[in-house]
Design brief:
The protein is built from 14 helices and 13 strands. By secondary structure, the protein is α/β, with parallel strands linked by helices.
Length: 426
């Protein structure tokens, strides 16, 4: 008897996460064949030699003996209290440890928060470009992601009027990613105040992804969204992964603030969901208090002369005078969202595939971030400056080949690469 293929869930239809998709699988295949791939598709500091601060590692080691059992579903008290202290120092009032949830990274907390909030067909306003987990998580939790544009011509800063036009009776929440992934935009205070005003006027929850909160450049001002919120509920999410270079610890937190008296059902639902997964990684939680209360070494990395600053400088210089590359200077986070102009038939996915196969550099096509255009790609500035210079040398060479080739030959070449990739991965 011939068996039928196992049917997968319909909920996965149109759910994408191309940052770790076909291109990443092809890169792994090439690396197994001996090719050295420069992987710029993921913001993973450890891949490029960054280390978690020693004090955080020691805090975990010293508490291993009390980390072998489950902890409270919301997380250990010292970690939650450290988040409360951070919120208070920023000017967010009324938050206690009861409104803080520790999760297995911000990714889990995004999923839990949306699951606690959404019913079938509820709409969530999500930035475009976005970190694609937000779009995917809304869909997986029965909602409809509605993308508000963050346009390149506006330095990727959203226009509150664009957001206002998208609000309907089914809208439940507005997602804000600041500093932004993938663009590196850091939103001005006035823009954030307008978004908060919209949310308060329409009774919408604010979901603020602030995982890059301390990673800013050239004096850019990061404004915590919760400091502006009074008459609605704000869920602020951050964690150890980026600022503290501890992706593998899988520790994030969500702090619920604002008009808490209307958030009690939401908080109860969030605690129920947290209970169903028992608890998050306990050893990693012991690093939170040390991280938030200790020396902020990220400032050395983002200041002039620091490694992240200097790698970003190479990206800026390599795109500034190039005839076909355009970049809005990232003011925060760990990425550059680079546009390509003046090359007929340019396609971001085909370019990313060419760059991988021929130059052994892996980037994330812009379409991965839920944008309607096909002429951008994202890279991370985590490699050192010398490596970034090599990357752009290879990238410039490939773009020169595009310019000197005929459109027909380029299209045929890309079709051949795409067909080859699909056959290798099938």
């Amino acid at each position: 008897m011939q068996s039928s293929p196992i049917r997968t869930s319909d909920s996965l239809r149109n759910v994408r996460y191309e940052i770790r998709g076909n291109l990443a699988r092809r890169a792994l295949e090439l690396s197994r064949k001996g090719y050295e791939i420069i992987s710029l598709n993921i913001g993973n500091p450890a891949l490029f030699g960054f280390r978690t601060p020693e004090t955080m590692r020691l805090a975990m080691i010293e508490n291993f003996g009390v980390s072998e059992g489950y902890c409270h579903q919301k997380g250990i008290f010292p970690a939650r209290e450290a988040v409360v202290m951070q919120q208070q120092e920023r000017g967010v009032h009324g938050v206690t440890a009861e409104e803080v949830f520790i999760g297995n990274g911000v990714s889990e907390l995004i999923d839990l928060s949306l699951r606690a909030l959404l019913n079938e067909g509820d709409e969530v306003l999500v930035p475009s470009p976005d970190y694609p987990l937000w779009t995917a998580a809304v869909k997986l939790n029965r909602g409809e992601p509605i993308h508000y544009p963050c346009k390149p011509e506006n330095d990727f800063v959203p226009d509150p009027e664009d957001i206002a036009r998208l609000i309907t009776p089914r809208t439940r929440a507005i997602v804000v990613v600041n500093p932004n992934n993938p663009t590196g935009a850091v939103y001005p205070r006035a823009v954030l105040e307008s978004i908060v005003s919209l949310a308060e006027r329409h009774g919408l929850m604010l979901l603020s992804d602030e995982i890059y909160d301390h990673i800013t450049y050239d004096g850019a001002e990061f404004v915590p969204l919760a400091t502006l919120v009074e008459d609605t509920v704000c869920v602020t999410m951050s964690g150890l992964s980026k600022v503290y270079r501890a992706c593998g610890y899988r520790v994030g937190w969500a702090a619920v603030s604002g008009k808490l008296r209307i958030a009690q059902d939401f908080l109860s639902a969030l605690e129920l969901l947290a209970s169903l997964r028992l608890c998050s990684n306990v050893p990693g939680q012991w690093a939170v208090q040390t991280a938030l209360g200790g020396y902020q070494s990220i400032r050395e990395l983002t200041a002039p002369g620091g490694r992240l600053y200097e790698s970003r400088r190479v990206i800026l210089e390599s795109t500034e005078d190039h005839p076909h590359l355009r970049l809005v200077a990232p003011q925060g986070a760990l990425y550059g969202f680079i546009g390509v102009e003046g090359i007929p038939h340019f396609d971001d996915e085909a370019f990313a595939l060419d760059l991988l196969e021929r130059k052994h550099v892996l980037v994330a096509p812009g379409i991965s971030f839920n944008v309607p255009y096909h002429n951008h790609f994202r890279i991370t500035n985590l490699p050192d400056a010398a490596t970034m210079a090599v990357v752009f040398k290879r990238m410039h060479e490939l773009l020169e080949e595009y310019v000197t080739g005929t459109p027909a030959s380029l299209q045929a070449q890309r079709a051949e690469y795409a067909s080859s990739l699909q056959s290798k991965l099938s």
